[in-house]
Amino acid sequence: MANPASTPDGRPTMYTTSWCGFCRRLKAQLAREGIYLREVDIERDPEAAEFVMRVNGGNQTVPTLLFPDGTVMTNPPAKKVKQHLESLAASGK
């Protein structure tokens, strides 16, 4: 994964697992706000699992969100995600 922050459409990437209730809840909350994510299941993508462990002190903690500017949030509230995306839009990133 050379540059995990780059997505063709600029959406954040959410690293998740199929069984993660926190992931499902955050995804639903963001969808209600009109925020859609690129999802990557770390159990199906070893490079994604390595990235998640690297940014979470060796732990496979999900949801982990990667934003187009390269910032990362682990298990954030939807409000914080929305605020960060708004700040990125305002700064033109």
Automatic annotation (TrEMBL):
Domain Glutaredoxin, residue spans: 13-67
Any one GO BP annotation for this protein: cell redox homeostasis
A Gene Ontology molecular function term of the record: electron transfer activity
Superkingdom, taxonomy of origin: Bacteria
A Pfam short name: Glutaredoxin
This protein's name: Glutaredoxin
Protein's organism: Thermomonospora curvata (strain ATCC 19995 / DSM 43183 / JCM 3096 / KCTC 9072 / NBRC 15933 / NCIMB 10081 / Henssen B9)
